[in-house]
Amino acid sequence: MDVYGKELIHKTFGEAATTALANAMSTGRPVNIDVLVHSRTGARWLEGDDGVTKYDEDPDASVFSRIQIKATDLGRVP
Question: Is residue 49 situated within a structural domain?
Answer without folding.
Answer: yes
